[in-house]
Amino acid sequence: MFFHIYKYRLKALFYQKEEFFWNLIFPLILATCFFAAFSKITESTEGFSTIPVAVVLEETDGEKYFTEMMDALSESKDGEEAFFAVNYVAKEEAEALLEDKEVAGMIVLKEAKPSLIILENGMEQTMIKAVMDKYLQTMDVITGMIPAHLDKLEQVMEAVSDEASYIREQKLTDGNIDNIIDYFFALIAMTCLMGTSTGQVCITYIKANLSAIGLRKSISSAKRMTMILGDMAATYSLSALSNAALLIYLKYILKLNMGGSFLEIYAVTLVGSLIGISIGILIGSLPGVGEGAKMGINLCITLFSSFLSGLMMGGIKYLIEEYCPIINRINPASLISDALHSLNIYDDYAKYAQCMVIMVVMSAVLLTAGIVIARRETYDNI
Amino acid sequence: MSESVIVVENLVKRYKELIALDHFNLDIKKGEIFGLLGPNGSGKTTTINCILALLKFDKGSISVFGEEMKPDSYELKSKIGVVMQNVAVFDELTVYENIDYFCGLYISDKKLRKQYVEEAIEFVDLGEFKKFYPKKLSGGLLRRLNIACGIVHKPELIFMDEPTVAVDPQSRNKILEGIVELNKMGATIIYTSHYMEEVEQICTRIAIMDKGKNLAIGTTDELKKMIKRNETISIEVLEIAENIISLIKELPHVYEVTYEEKMLKVLYSGGKHNLIRILDLLKNEGVSFGRVYSERPTLNDVFLEITGKELRD
């Protein structure tokens, strides 16, 4: 009987255009919008390409160090793009290139000092300026100190060349540590939690006071638990399918680096959908609450928990973690995004497992409560 | 005396201050087509829902097939079919799939289920619409699908709550014939309707309900005998004097005489030769008359007299 109910419910779900849209199409649309919006930010803040510069050598004295540095910066290393693309040209040509925006800046080397000429301000110009400043600073050190301390030439050169950065980049993971990925994690969490509405529909279709079909099913000889589980399994299958579609879209079409393997991420969404549907079943089972009110509660839960997990405001989850961490431990959307985040950030699975276990336990509790309430209910009014 | 299928004793159901069922009693025997008649809000659907253990009730007892009906009385439920007032089918499933779905809630065996589904489709004459989705069906066909979904598992007891509402005459006749057919096949049927003529046509026994009470119960003839009116004679008269109306009132068994819009209406509480007597009187008094009608009381008259209102009020 379970499979009989499952089969037809699944078919009905596939033919329900609203369900199909909200579960399958809407997340894809939202993902596309996110991608379009965030990729522009990424391009403007992080997209780096070689900076074309024109260099005018007005004298030969002292050009050696400068041209060596510029040549070094023009080489590409380890597959990374070169920092500069240098054009050694005459002044007139350099001005023409600058005018035509063929180069970002024009550097004129005179009396061993480079001066930068630009026509507009921007990131590329700032970067050229930073390089020039550094060059001048280093040259000052060398030319100022070496004549006085010829005996310590080696140490001076070492000190200059060994100017170490005290901040060392330590990669914890090969994952994407870009904060923008958090928005996609929150989107995945929201998609999972949209199961609340389909979970509620499972109950609507077995409660005599909520639908005519519910009435017909209530008086049938099929056990309510079987009917709930059959409907739930069908709903869950649809969620699993929409999750897979969303992940495939994010990972293989939008080519987002989400950290863990497809299966690990998919497992999170499966557990996430389970908790979403379980919430819907519990809310749907609440006696004495109208259908509209239940829908409202479900929508509030989905949106509010997504908000708290950072769907609408990136830093909110970290604020909650600081002031009231328990919310992040029980907020389903936070648990889903944390599990995904942990796959992306940590090498071990401790945090991932913790989130998954909490979600499974919460789902079991919510589902049991929902079924117990709905199972033997008689009504005051139909 | 055949066995009781449903016994309701002193059933009381309140919706806050409103008493929906007031010490309601019912005893429905096996093989009956039992009609529950009553105006809107009289408690018909509440009675059915209480019997089906869908509604909690405040007092009284209900037994179905000799057992107390509970929400988890699955064995009992397998013997019951319900055709509700509202069409309860999935818009996303075809006619065949809908019937198969609801049959599957009772019958696990695939072969048997297939046979039952085919029989139900044939029974409601939806063979050529098997692959249609409900939205493509007319109101009458939809009602027939609703009936098929309720009776597909061959229940012994069938509740039919206004199954012919908003149905064209052709479909209505088919439905009524089907109900009688189901009864002949052994099903006990509890039938509620607004349409007196339907109830009169198919029900073997009728209960008249109002304000949660069972006002009268019996066969159509028994109910008709319960009321004062036995015969109504209507005569077209162009003109009649007051003294002649007084003479008519003095005739045996006459208890009410009215003259409105050139129609003389005389109500009798009994008697055998009422028509001859009144026509003789009119002739003797020189009153000319046109068409004459004599009518036995209808169920509507019974209802009107017992409840004091028309059923469709």
Protein model, in words:
The complex is a heterodimer of chains A (382) and B (313). Chain A has helices at 2-15, 17-46, 63-74, 91-99, 123-145, 153-161, 180-193, 195-204, 212-218, 224-253, 262-285, 291-308, 316-323, 325-330, 332-345, 350-375, and strands spanning 51-57, 84-88, 105-110, 113-117. Chain A is an alpha/beta fold. Chain A has two domains: 2-41 and 176-375, no CATH class; 50-161, D-Maltodextrin-Binding Protein, domain 2 (3-Layer(aba) Sandwich). A four-stranded mixed β-sheet of chain A has the order 2-1-3-4, with helices on both faces. Chain B has 313 residues and is of the alpha/beta class. Chain B contains eleven helices and 14 strands. In chain B, the strands form three sheets. Chain B has a six-stranded mixed β-sheet, with helices on both faces. In chain B, strands 2-1-4-5 form a four-stranded antiparallel β-sheet, covered by helices on one side. The longest helix of chain B is centred in the middle third of the chain and has 16 residues, at 169-184. The two termini of chain B are 37 Å apart. The chains are: A alpha/beta (382), B alpha/beta (313). The interface between A and B is medium-sized, with 32 and 35 residues.
List descriptors:
heterodimer; A: 382 residues; alpha/beta; D-Maltodextrin-Binding Protein, domain 2; 4-stranded mixed β-sheet; 16 helices; elongated; B: 313 residues; Rossmann fold; Alpha-Beta Plaits; 2 domains; 6-stranded mixed β-sheet
